[in-house]
Amino acid sequence: MEQKLPLPPFTLETALQKVQLAEDAWNSQDPVRVSLGYTVDSEWRNRSTFVNGRAEIVKFLTGKWERELNYKLKKELWAFTDNRIAVRFEYEYQNVDGQWFRAYGNENWDFNEHGLMQRRFASINDVAINETDRRLR
């Protein structure tokens, strides 16, 4: 059976590890690598977009990183329970016209017993920033 360590139930240490692993995967900007942390039938709500399954995750992230250039993300553990983790995050990116943005948000994650995320719900807001105001590099 496919597994993604660490496995639930989470402790503070393993929840922090899971958050760091997710941050590292997303910062790779490799849609396939990111998708492997999710179940094959994973459910997402990302802003107002609904994504289901790894194939749709790869398609969604491929388009995202074609539009969001110079992407850099920071995730922070907010709370956790047995098989759930909540994070706050911010990321910065530049659009194809050269405008920089900082996005803020929260995610709720639900994992199966094999450590794969089966549900991800993300609420995200973007703010235009000047390049000199960037915090993530």
UniProtKB/TrEMBL annotation:
SUPFAM superfamilies linked: NTF2-like
Pfam families: DUF1348
Source organism of this protein record: Chitinophaga polysaccharea
InterPro entries: DUF1348, NTF2-like_dom_sf
Annotated Gene3D superfamilies: 3.10.450.50
Protein name (record): SnoaL-like protein
